[in-house]
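Hello Y.,

Per our agreement to keep a running log of every chain we model this quarter, I'm adding this entry. I've kept the format consistent with earlier entries: sequence first, then predicted structure.
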Amino acid sequence: MPKLLSGRPAQDVAEEGKVRRLAGARHAPADWILRARIIVLSWEGDRVPVIASRLGCHHKTVCKWLHRFNTQGMDGLGDRPGCGRKRRITEDERSRIIELVRCDPPGRLVREPWGDLAAEDESAPGEWTLDTLAEAARRQGIDIQRSQVRRIFLAEGVRWRRTRSWITSRDPEFSPKGRGSSACTRTRRRTPR
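Predicted structure for the entry above:
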């Protein structure tokens, strides 16, 4: 026959008061409230299946929190440190990615002293995008995806936008294009509404 599980009696009046206040609280974390209600219902004489059905949780959840309360008391109702998924990249790797974006991309055009434009590596990207940053980080040995790069910049307060590149000419006869300057672009008549 299985052993009947219930919450141990409170060690003192203060502990009982804390658990009962937490069970009736409205502005405490929901997981703490649920765990305190499990203990209070156990003190009132309800068994594990009844507590689980009244609180809408699984009976294994009820058993887990009753065991934790019986061994650790009020401290057992909290989450243990280290819960949740561990970070996939370290702080050092995050710093290296941020430093990477501060330097110029290897394919960026730079004006030579004699006036020509040249890139350090012509096959490399001329501007940083999330994809090119992720690829450059992978070349440095950091296993990272585009979405993670974006999240790192959002956490740093940087909003990523598409870049628009342009260059001006030193040619004295250069004139910028105007609207509809192409001969093959047909203009559309605007009809009044």
